[in-house]
Design a protein that fits this description.
17% strand, 2 domains, 11 strands, Isopropylmalate Dehydrogenase, 11-stranded mixed beta sheet, 331 residues
């Protein structure tokens, strides 16, 4: 039975959506227990009596706020995220989920849990919707603002293994994000990375930003600076498109009638672009699963982040990453 550590106080909206998501996850999946880290006086009354045996509360009142520096988290050993990470470090939990300060989660996970052998820097991976019935895994989307070619090579291997082990794709196709498909395109870092990633099976070469949403490849590699801009731009575009559609539908009765017919289509679109469907972004490259959920996560997002943590903890993900890095690094 998997044990999931949960930063119960870290989200933008306090513990309510986090504990609600936990209870929903416990209701659906009976094969895990939770260690909820936070203020016991606040958390305990939220947990129904029939679930109390599956939730252990690790009491602490210190919370790393979004305005705090990530380096502050390294000193505040009584904070919720520090204690949650240490539960995994000390093998009292198999994985951790947090919707709190992402920088603090990354720093603590890297320093306290440690990196997988062969990984220079961990990377945050996220799923992006496509026009096909699939998603594209993109990494890094924020862990590293400056990455060299070796880092990008490692991201490619980690993304490939995650897509195979967790997303259950048989032969994931990898693309390197660049400003053109030709091998000659890109900056010095991506050109060197192209040579290194060429050692990895199913490398499709350079891809452009539009390929992410076409689903032409399964994994897209980029540095965290570019990836984070890509992620936030995509969220903004999706939100803007939704608002434009709603505004235009209100302009005529014909449009309103059409909206009734299109309701199912819009509902399906919303599901595809809603981060709550995926739960959170895994931090790949550390020795245990760390899932970084959106600060504004609702109960559904927390539930799915927990499920993602369970799946990762149940797999041999880290062993396979270490093995494949060793194989392709020596080629």
């Amino acid at each position: 039975m998997q044990r999931i550590a949960l930063d119960a106080m870290g989200g933008d909206f306090g513990p309510e959506p986090i504990i609600e998501g936990l209870i929903e996850a416990l209701r659906i999946n009976t094969n895990f227990t939770a260690l909820a880290v936070g203020n016991k006086d606040i958390i305990e009354p939220m947990i129904p009596a029939n679930f109390k045996s599956r939730v252990e509360i690790v009491h602490t009142t210190d919370i790393i706020s979004m305005s705090d520096s990530a380096t502050d988290a390294l000193k505040r050993k009584e904070s919720t995220i520090y204690k949650a990470i240490d539960l995994v470090k000390n093998q009292d939990a198999d994985a951790v989920v947090s919707a709190g300060h992402s920088g603090a989660s990354m720093s603590l996970a890297t320093l306290r849990i440690g990196r997988i052998k062969g990984v220079s820097r961990p990377a945050i991976a996220t799923l992006m919707p496509t026009s096909e019935n699939q998603n594209t895994l993109v990494l890094d989307v924020g862990a590293n603002v400056d990455s060299d070619s070796k880092n990008l090579f490692e991201f490619a291997v980690m993304g490939k293994v995650y897509a195979k082990n967790v997303l259950q794709l048989d032969d994931p196709i990898i693309g390197l994000l660049s400003n053109g498909e030709e091998e000659s395109k890109g900056n010095e870092v991506t050109k060197e990375a192209f040579k290194l990633i060429s050692k990895v099976p199913n490398f499709a070469g350079n891809v452009e930003g539009s390929d992410i949403f076409k689903g032409t490849v399964d994994v897209v590699v980029c540095d965290g600076f570019v990836g984070n801009i890509l992620l936030k731009t995509s969220e903004g575009v999706a939100d803007t498109i939704g608002k434009i559609i709603k505004k235009n539908l209100k302009r005529s009765l014909i449009s309103i009638a059409g909206a009734v017919l299109m309701r199912k289509v819009f509902k399906s679109l919303k599901v595809r672009v809603d981060y709550a469907e995926y739960g959170g972004a895994p931090l790949l490259g550390v020795k245990a699963p760390v899932i970084i959920a959106h600060g504004k996560s609702n109960p559904k997002a927390i539930k799915n982040a927990i499920f993602q943590a369970i799946t990762a903890a149940s797999s041999n993900l880290n062993d396979h990453i270490e093995q494949e890095l060793l194989i392709y690094s020596t080629k």
